[in-house]
Amino acid sequence: MNVYIDPDGREAGDVGGSQSLRAQLRLRELILAGALAPGARIAEVALVERIGVSRTPIRAALLRLEQEGLLQALPGGGYAVRVFSEREVADAIELRGTLEGLSARLAAERGAPAEALAQAGAALDEIDAVLRHSALDDAQWQRYVAANELFHHLLHGMAGSAVVARELERVVRLPFASPSAFVVQQAHAPQARDMLIVAQDQHRQVLDAIARREGARAEAILREHARIAQRNLREAMAAPLPGRAPGVRLVVPEATLPEPAAEATAAPRRRGRPRKDAAVP
């Protein structure tokens, strides 16, 4: 079982936007579910038939998913499903931990709204209710993921900083960087529930630190909290390839990552007269 919480679950303001959003969400789902193979070229016509929208929203969705990092633009046009190195994913998780730590410190120093603290506490109460079960079935895992995502979302807004909240929104959209991206990969591991109990204790501690206006403590706890996601990544990668969840198959060890085509990563060449400092052949 694999669960991904969509960060874009908001309504579009017009029909065209709704179609583009629908195409984007469905295409992301297909990629993370393994329906589109890593490195596979994306065929627009096939997506039109599969998703049931016209080519215009499909193209908008492809562009957006390239910006998110799930797709790679090809030199001759079109897109392919990206393959990620384990280091890239680890760096994205580290970046989320750094930004969440900053957000928690600012929230503590500036004073978080009482309503936000209460809502975050209610989300943690929901997690406590899940963890009272000695064994978690699929429904309980989904409850955990939903409450965990809500808690982190509330944390992101406590600092009262539109800049930090915007950057956090961007980083959690990076492939596999969301707070619950690898949690469910370990759902059937013997130590899975114990790991969640440790993470929940960190949730409670950071909320307590913010309420007590202890900025340095809040930041340190969330930086350490990201280490659990790093461990989940390592354990997911250690599983035999056939047993990995489909989305994790997009992640490969650094040594096996294919080199990207130079044309796909190079900056577009400008036309016109050369710069004065350009080398002359």
UniProtKB/TrEMBL annotation:
<dbReference type="InterPro" id="IPR036390">
    <property type="entry name" value="WH_DNA-bd_sf"/>
</dbReference>
<dbReference type="InterPro" id="IPR008920">
    <property type="entry name" value="TF_FadR/GntR_C"/>
</dbReference>
<protein>
    <submittedName>
        <fullName>GntR family transcriptional regulator of vanillate catabolism</fullName>
    </submittedName>
</protein>
<keyword id="KW-0805">Transcription regulation</keyword>
<keyword id="KW-0804">Transcription</keyword>
<dbReference type="Pfam" id="PF07729">
    <property type="entry name" value="FCD"/>
</dbReference>
<dbReference type="InterPro" id="IPR011711">
    <property type="entry name" value="GntR_C"/>
</dbReference>
<dbReference type="GO" id="GO:0003677">
    <property type="term" value="F:DNA binding"/>
</dbReference>
<feature type="region of interest" description="Disordered">
    <location>
        <begin position="256"/>
        <end position="281"/>
    </location>
</feature>
<dbReference type="InterPro" id="IPR036388">
    <property type="entry name" value="WH-like_DNA-bd_sf"/>
</dbReference>
<dbReference type="InterPro" id="IPR000524">
    <property type="entry name" value="Tscrpt_reg_HTH_GntR"/>
</dbReference>
<dbReference type="Pfam" id="PF00392">
    <property type="entry name" value="GntR"/>
</dbReference>
<dbReference type="GO" id="GO:0003700">
    <property type="term" value="F:DNA-binding transcription factor activity"/>
</dbReference>
<feature type="compositionally biased region" description="Low complexity">
    <location>
        <begin position="256"/>
        <end position="267"/>
    </location>
</feature>
<feature type="domain" description="HTH gntR-type">
    <location>
        <begin position="17"/>
        <end position="84"/>
    </location>
</feature>
<keyword id="KW-0238">DNA-binding</keyword>
